[in-house]
Design brief:
The protein is an alpha/beta fold. The protein has helices spanning 27-35, 47-50, 73-84, 104-113, 126-133, 165-171, 184-193, 223-230, 247-250, and strands spanning 11-16, 38-41, 58-61, 64-65, 68-69, 89-94, 118-121, 147-151, 174-178, 201-206, 214-219, 236-240. The strands form three sheets. Strands 3-2-6-1-7 form a five-stranded parallel beta sheet, sandwiched between helices. Strands 8-9-12-10-11 form a five-stranded mixed beta sheet, sandwiched between helices. β8, α6 (165-171) and β9 form a beta-alpha-beta unit.
Length: 255
């Protein structure tokens, strides 16, 4: 990526918006939204959080959803560079946390290469918050002392051919899968083939931490049929492991 033709006068902040509940936005993130000149936001940022943006700020939707792209990734980065040349405070508002399957690392790397000042403001990731709102602790002394986060939706031509589900199955007692609904059949099959019991509990959480939150609890063997019957779709997080058993006991949190 080429360096800007003009001297950059602004700074880009990669801000994590959290999983949806506006109460989970960080104080620093809220202050930046209130003082930003431009906010370039993703599709999964909630309307309540967008309402916190300064009325004087330019708002640009750069959201990406399965099969629907408002801007290509390189177009988003080029837009950030251009806006940083025009304004002091540019916020790149991303759902969850910028560095947890949010492409924040890619954007930050490109901005640094282009000579644009940039700072990351972490956000609460849905892989932690959604299970908590569903009454599923990712670790528990009686059920799990380890947790692993993995993407279920991989980019073609990436740095390695695919997720090693055999290694994942053997590495942690709790597995959290982001963006896995579309590949759930293959994921469940590979985890069972890797040694997980077919009756291992799994929970899917859709629209986590919002008033629309929905939960579906089953086993690796039954989850795919249940998803089809319930027409359960993205955006969803999957939690796999015995901690899911606590959902019936702890899952009484009122949103």
């Amino acid at each position: 990526m080429q360096n800007p033709d003009r001297e950059t006068i602004g700074k880009v902040y990669l801000v994590g918006a959290g999983p949806g509940d506006p109460g989970l936005l960080t104080v620093k993130g809220k202050i930046l939204l209130e003082s930003a000149d431009v906010v370039i936001y993703d599709a999964l940022v909630s309307a309540e959080i967008l309402s916190m943006i300064s009325p004087h700020a330019e708002q640009i939707n750069a959201g990406k959803r399965m099969g629907r792209h408002s801007l290509l990734q390189h177009e988003t980065t080029e837009l950030l560079i251009a806006k940083a040349q025009e304004h002091p405070i540019v916020v790149r508002l991303k759902g969850g946390d910028p560095f947890i399957f949010g492409r924040g690392g890619e954007e930050m790397e490109d901005l640094i290469t282009a000579g644009v000042p940039v700072e990351v403001v972490p956000g609460v990731t849905s892989g932690i918050a959604a299970p908590a709102y569903a009454g599923i602790p990712l670790t528990h002394r009686n059920y799990s002392s380890s947790v692993i986060f993995v993407t279920g939706h991989e980019m073609a031509g990436k740095y390695r051919p695919g997720v090693n589900w055999n290694a994942i199955a053997q590495s942690a007692e709790t597995i959290v899968v982001y963006m896995g609904v579309h590949n759930l059949d293959r994921i469940a099959h590979e985890l069972i083939a890797a040694g997980l019991a077919s009756n291992t509990p799994i929970a899917l959480i859709r629209w986590g931490t919002t008033l629309k939150q929905q939960e579906l609890v089953a086993t690796l063997e039954t989850i795919v049929d249940l998803v089809e019957t319930a027409q359960f779709s993205a955006p969803s997080i999957a939690i796999i492991g015995n901690v899911v058993k606590l959902h019936d006991i702890l899952g009484s949190i009122s949103l």
